Structure formats: C-alpha cells, structure tokens
Amino acid sequence: MSASSHTDVGARAGDVACDVRLTSVDVWLVDLTDDAISEPLVVHMLDPEERRCAAARAGAGRRRYVAAHAALRMILGSILEVDAASVRFRRTCGRCGAQDHGRPWVAEAAPLDFSIGHSGDRAIVAVSDGVQVGADIEAVRPRVHLQRLARRVLDPTDHAEWSALSGERALASFLEAWTAKEAYLKATGEGITRRLSGVPRAATPGWSLARPETGGGYVAAVVARSEGLRIRYRLPVVATGERGAP
Ligand SMILES: CC(C)(COP(=O)(O)OP(=O)(O)OC[C@H]1O[C@@H](n2cnc3c(N)ncnc32)[C@H](O)[C@@H]1OP(=O)(O)O)[C@@H](O)C(=O)NCCC(=O)NCCS
Ligand SMILES: [Zn+2]
C-alpha cells in the first residue's frame, strides 16, 4: 500500500539531536460531482447496508453519499488489491460497543486505518498504515447560530480569542477548530459523544494535526496518533489535479 511506515528523521537543532517520527497519511480529496462516480455507474459497488443508507436520503444527498462510498471503496480496493465491491466493512461504536453503527473499519485483517468525511460536493479520505487516523472536511458557508455554536464548541480561552474575529475570518477559524475536533473524535472512534469544548483543536502529545489543501471553499483536517505527520496527496484531487502521487 502507499502509506509508509514510521520514518525516523534525524535532525539537528543547534547542538541538540532531535528524533522526529513521521507518519505518512495518504489523502484523497474527492469531487462528488465527478461523472466517474455518478450513481448509475457505481451503485452496484455498495453493500446492502450502504444501499439502505443511500435510500434513506433524497436527491443530492443520496447522490453524494453513493459517490463518496464508491470513491472510498475504489480507494480501499486498490490498496487491498480487491474489487471495490468486494471491500467489506465492520463497525464498532466507541461509546456503546454496538456493531451496527460507529467507526467503520475494513473487515479484512490489514495494517490499514482509514477515515472519511463529506461536506457539500467534496469528500476527504485519509488512509494510514494502521496508525489511528481521522479526517473531516467542511464547506465554508455561513452557519446560522455561529455565535452559539462557537460558545459550545470552543474552550473558554479559544472562545475569548475567537470573539475578537468577525466575518469570514470568524467563520474560517471556527471551521478550523470544528474540523480538528471532529477529526480527533473520528480517529479515536468516539464520534461526537462528549463536550466538544474538551476536545483539542491542535496537535497534542502523541497526536499530530495536518491541514490538507482543499483547493478553496472547504476547510479540512487530518489527525493521526503519531508524533509527526506528512500528508501525501493522491489523485483524484479537486482543482486542477496537478498534485498527484509522487
Ligand atoms: C461521526 C460523526 C462525527 C460524523 O460527523 P458528520 O458531520 O455527521 O459526518 P462526516 O461526513 O464528517 O463523517 C461521516 C463519516 O464518519 C464515519 N464515522 C461514523 N461514526 C464514526 C465514529 N464513531 N468514529 C469515526 N468515524 C465515524 C463514517 O465513515 C461516516 O461516513 P458515512 O456517514 O458516509 O457512513 C458524527 O456523526 C457522530 O459523532 N456520530 C456518532 C454519534 C454517536 O456515536 N452517538 C452515540 C451512539 S451510542
Ligand atoms: Zn453506540
């Protein structure tokens, strides 16, 4: 698979030798309006549970769900070297332990962890070599009750700083915090089951945070249980698509 394992990087800061462990996480930014993953072409790839979830949604929501899950299957299938339709998922809820909801995993025993998020016409998929990973993306569009949301989501110190911002800067700053926190909760598998104000919005000891470029109009975050994180962009990506795999 493409995600590399830990890399020891010996660096020198002054006379002090530093040892930074970098984890590579592969990231796909998917345009959900791409004809190649349109519903009629790809719906056959989905399993009965995914089809049930798709059918519960209407119109654009259903098309985006189908496209996102097809893209996820195509990505995981290429890594596992199986057909997209053959990828099997299992779920475990980090809160109640149930197997019918919560964090998805690939059922095959593989040194692989993944996370997916979608918003508007975009999805983000992050894949690691087994290091816990979480990813989130949010469209930059005005949110009603932004002030109220920020009070609930940000801790008091962050909220005091955030309150000095206004307009687009306030919205972008809030979405940066939100995506980081959701990415953490996806990486741990907790989901939104506790107060978001207590969830970090930046790297913490043992955890790294990266901000994938989205091509504009979206804010994204990837969090991994690792001391250092390197994002490797994979095709297809939004915008001009000039940033492919090395
Ligand atoms: C997981 C969660 C943060 C996703 O946020 P969202 O804004 O709704 O949706 P996103 O597009 O960002 O992410 C959705 C993806 O997260 C993943 N996901 C769902 N639950 C997850 C969990 N516990 N941990 C990690 N990832 C999870 C799924 O792959 C999902 O994709 P799908 O909806 O296409 O199947 C949110 O829905 C949540 O917290 N749900 C769980 C609530 C819960 O656990 N309640 C207690 C039940 S006992
Ligand atoms: Zn549960």
Q: Please state roughly what percent of the residues sit in beta strands, choosing from under 5%, 5-15%, 15-25%, 25-35%, 35-45% or over 45%.
A: 25-35%
Helix content: 25-40%
Number of helices: 6
Mean pLDDT across all residues, rounded? 88
**What Rg is obtained from the alpha carbons, in whole angstroms?**
18 Å
Number of distinct beta strands: 10
Largest sheet: 5 strands, mixed
The CATH topology is given as Ribosomal Protein L22, Chain A
CATH homologous superfamily caption: 4'-phosphopantetheinyl transferase domain
Q: CATH top level? A: Alpha Beta
Backbone structural class: alpha+beta
CATH architecture: Alpha-Beta Complex
- Quaternary organisation: single chain
SSE topology string: EEHHHEEEEEHHHEEE
Distance between the termini: 14 Å
Provide an overview of this structure.
The protein has six helices and ten strands; from the N terminus they run ββαααβββββαααβββ. The chain has one domain: Ribosomal Protein L22, Chain A, CATH 3.90.470.20. The chain has helices at residues 39-42, 48-55, 59-80, 146-153, 156-162, 167-188; strands spanning 7-13, 16-31, 89-92, 103-106, 113-119, 122-128, 133-139, 208-210, 218-224, 228-234. Helices cover 29% and strands 28% of the residues. The two termini are 14 Å apart. The chain is globular, with a radius of gyration of 18 Å. Helix 2 packs antiparallel against helix 3. Strand 1 (7-13) and strand 2 form a beta hairpin. Strands 1, 2, 5, 6 and 10 form a five-stranded mixed β-sheet that branches.
